DNA sequence: CATTTTTACGAAAACGGTTTCGTAAATAAA
DNA sequence: TTTATTTACGAAACCGTTTTCGTAAAAATG
């Protein structure tokens, strides 16, 4: 038994294709009796409509494109969970496309989407993304795009983000309140707006508390773990080593912990640490890691909700809202 | 500018729709000159074919369904990476469907797939899945299914798994070689074949080394973190407490570390620990965690390769191979 | 009973590509 | 020069569903 089509049902019941279709969609044009018979047969033959025929005819695929830099990431994978929890309720499916932090990939993915493969897009831009040309091109084809977490300021559309500036500020202030006088900031060299906002928060907090901010205390890390380790180690070997560290992305916690152990520095005794992270395992690090935790699931959920709403109205102006869901500072032992 | 169709190109160049289509697909029937003109116009107007029209006509969607219990999981998210790296090269897309470990969800997802939404399926069964009826139903519709990691023995199809029995054995033997005499085994109560195989490996290793295996040393954990913590704590408070622990799933590392700290037990001094885990952060746990690490990326990659090959032949018998990619034991401090 | 309205259905035209088949014109072979 | 072949293209069917529109028959209305 290959594929059961509407035509097969029609033949079996001596009805027309259109009648079957209407019966399946519970149209008022069809008698209750006929509906029953059609439904029964469909059930019996295990009929499943061909989604592509429907998509073609109806010009909507019931598929949401999720374009992200990486999936093996505690933030993004949780966000996907949030997205999925919302869209599946409305019968939508989730198509994942990974950019691997490359603009070129992002461009070709969005370009392909111009063909109408997805009804809408949820995306977090890659680190390389500075211009929004490819994104606007897609939006001009009437494919709504909603940013989540990593938004591109330049593109005017809905955005669901967290309070990065305030989080950077809060993280820094937290260390200050714990007595830190010289606080270093670890960042991944990139041009993401969320990264700059976090750092601005850091700088503002220093300024507000009359602490000098020095370029030397801002350490540029990269994607290479070995390189990052060396950078952090160098930082901690300075004569005037910092007594506090704000690690602005999750993966930078590792080199900090490793370097401290290597150098026999005590956390939080010699240096207090706070890190932006969603990993639950932060709890069992020794010492447990104080984190700024982003509401990943919530962000995904909200972004999906916003997108579905946009798909509903479609013609109703893009509300172009910006939703901000605050991150949470979870104080643990590493900040003493 | 809404949607550029083949028809629009045809009109613009005073050619027929079929000529355009053939030109775009580089058919030998079309002159080089015409091809050039068509390609140029397509480029200029930013033409993108409607994938659903192609899917409908060609009866293939270029979409691979990935059905997994959970995405916020270090194993599955890495596996997705592996899958994506392979399929995107062949122009396929990845549709993610989450079962959340529920059979009912798994069934409805696969049922929907019977409509032809995906060309093939890569899946890891849910914990609740005991019968393969819904999977066979799908395969009868000629949608190839390849299992990865969590396979269902009962269903005859390609499987890409790791050596769970040997890994359970190796983990246990590792602790034995480190001097452990009484080794506990933590498991999630479930009926997954991979879980039982791991445990069988554990039991075999004990037997091979003349160590008594006691039911009391096999601790059933669940999905509730608090419950698991209590179970582990109770285990470690016994008068004859174990001197080694094999944690058969990643999330069980947390309660072990927490309980040991709470009870002031030293790892690996008082109790040695090994855990099945893919988390890189295992390195910076204190002490660093000895792990059995599954080749998640490789498994995903291989499974995808096998599936694509099956899609190629299609009519060529399902090779029905079983590929085994071994896990790796990474000895760190927790097993002393 | 005559007319209007409602009910229940079918024919056919989309949706946008792909592919088969037919055929003029150009070229090659005889 | 005549016939055979190749080249380059177009018409039309098709994939499976949805939706518009038309219409007999039945029911309601006057």
UniProtKB/TrEMBL annotation, chains A, B:
It holds the Pfam family LacI. SMART domains: HTH_LACI (SM00354). The keyword Transcription applies. GO terms for molecular function: DNA-binding transcription factor activity; transcription cis-regulatory region binding. Residues 4-58 form the HTH lacI-type domain. CDD domains: HTH_LacI, PBP1_LacI_sugar_binding-like. InterPro entries: HTH_LacI, LacI/GalR-like_sensor, Lambda_DNA-bd_dom_sf, Peripla_BP_I. The keyword Magnesium does not apply. Keywords: DNA-binding, Transcription, Transcription regulation. It comes from the Bacteria. Coiled coil: none annotated. This is LacI family transcriptional regulator. It comes from Chitinophaga cymbidii. The lineage of its organism: Bacteria, Pseudomonadati, Bacteroidota, Chitinophagia, Chitinophagales.
């Amino acid at each position: 038994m290959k594929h059961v089509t509407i035509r097969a049902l029609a033949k079996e019941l001596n009805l027309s294709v259109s009648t079957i279709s209407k019966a399946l969609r519970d149209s008022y044009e069809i008698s209750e009796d006929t509906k029953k018979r059609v439904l029964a047969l469909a059930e019996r033959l295990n009929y499943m409509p061909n989604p592509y025929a429907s998509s073609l005819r109806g010009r909507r695929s019931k598929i949401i494109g999720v374009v992200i830099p990486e999936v093996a990431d505690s933030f993004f994978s949780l966000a996907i969970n949030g997205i999925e929890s919302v869209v599946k309720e409305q019968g939508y499916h989730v198509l994942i496309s990974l950019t691997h932090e490359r603009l070129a990939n992002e461009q070709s993915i969005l370009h392909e989407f111009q063909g109408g493969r997805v009804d809408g897009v949820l995306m977090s831009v890659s680190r390389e993304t500075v211009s929004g040309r490819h994104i606007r091109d897609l939006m001009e084809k009437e494919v709504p795009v909603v940013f989540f977490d990593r938004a591109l300021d330049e593109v005017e559309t809905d955005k669901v983000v967290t309070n990065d500036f305030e989080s950077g500020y809060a993280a820094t202030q937290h260390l200050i309140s714990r007595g830190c006088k010289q606080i270093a900031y670890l960042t991944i060299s990139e041009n993401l707006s969320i990264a700059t906002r976090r750092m601005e928060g850091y700088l503002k907090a220093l300024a507000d508390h009359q602490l000098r901010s020095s370029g030397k205390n801002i350490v540029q890390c990269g994607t290479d773990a070995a390189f990052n380790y060396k950078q952090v180690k160098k930082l901690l070997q300075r004569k005037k080593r910092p007594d506090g560290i704000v690690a602005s992305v999750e993966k930078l916690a590792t080199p900090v912990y490793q370097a401290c152990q290597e150098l026999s520095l005590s956390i939080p005794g010699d240096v207090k640490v706070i890190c932006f992270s969603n990993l639950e395992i932060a709890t069992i690090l020794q010492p447990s890691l104080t984190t700024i935790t982003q509401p990943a699931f919530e962000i995904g959920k909200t972004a999906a909700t916003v997108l579905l709403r946009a798909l509903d109205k479609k013609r109703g102006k893009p509300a172009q809202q910006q939703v901000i869901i605050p991150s949470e500072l979870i104080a643990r032992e590493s900040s003493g």
